[in-house]
Amino acid sequence: MLKINTEFRKGIMFIRLNGEVDKLNIDNVFVNDFKYVVLNLDNLLSIDSEAIKNIIDYNNKITKNNGKLIICNKNYNVFTSLFKNIPVIDSEIKAFNIV
Question: pTM, whole model, 2 decimals?
Answer without folding.
Answer: 0.89
